[in-house]
Request: fold
Amino acid sequence: MKAVSIKEPGGPEVLEWTEVEDPVPAAGEVVIDVAAGALNRADVMQRWGLYPLAPGTSPYPGLEVSGRISALGDGVTGWQVGDEVCALLTGGGYAQKVAVPAGQLLTIPQGIGLVEAAALPEVTATVWSNLVMTAHLKKGETLLVHGGLGGVGTFAIQIAKALGARVVTTVGGPEKVARARELGADVAIDHRTEDFTAFGPFDVILDVVGGDYLERNISSLAADGRLVVIGLQNGLEGRLNLADIVFKRVSVHGTTLRTRSKEQKAEIVAEVRDKVWPMIESGAVRLIIDRTVPMAEAAEGHRLMEAGGHVGKILLVNE
Reply:
């Protein structure tokens, strides 16, 4: 088979479409013939050499795919060769085939195409696990989503609205303000010209930015507020006012989905299937796909993501 390998840390040009060994399913795993994968910010960090991989992790990027099961490992039940699925991965999705634990498989929601479904697993698992399982977002609370028109942001806005929350989001530029409101955001802030702290306090903040946003995030939380940091686009360090944490009783969570155990991922995937899939099938949550790019041209997809003009997900399609 072919997969996208990373020659060395660097820009998009270090991605190579190359011949590699086919995956073999271990016990409890299946092999998927990949129809499509999706880009995530973690893929860019991995390409730059800024995302250390746990031992045994596939060296190829890619955290979510859709496709058809082509092989079953020992002990797999409930799935058959030929089933159309999408899957949450630890890596390896930029390829023609990938092995994945059966607990990380999802059926494809009704009304969603096979290629489109590649946009779902990582982002829905990220949003649900952080907003609901970690931050315990409740009906009537106010959520601030940074980067509301990225892959995570477009789903976070819609899922939070479906849960009955009030949603505020930051975006870059007046045209994106309008798009965020179309998605259901109650307030959309152009971070280039406005300070999001003026729109608080917030009960929950979902932050993909990190860095110097830390101090402002904490200062704009309500009493008993929860900050969940899932991205580091602005860097690894930020200032922290401990008085704000102590006297407002706020909590700060740093999370990542990739390094969780198979058991933890299976638990999250099960909740996504039970709670989020009905939102998608009812139309309460819509897929926002910016464009598709051939898998062999993954470097172009990375250039588009880093340029920052996309809205929603960028998909890589095996042709």
Notes: The longest helix spans residues 262-282. Helices lie at 41-47, 121-134, 151-162, 174-183, 213-219, 242-248, 262-282, 298-307.
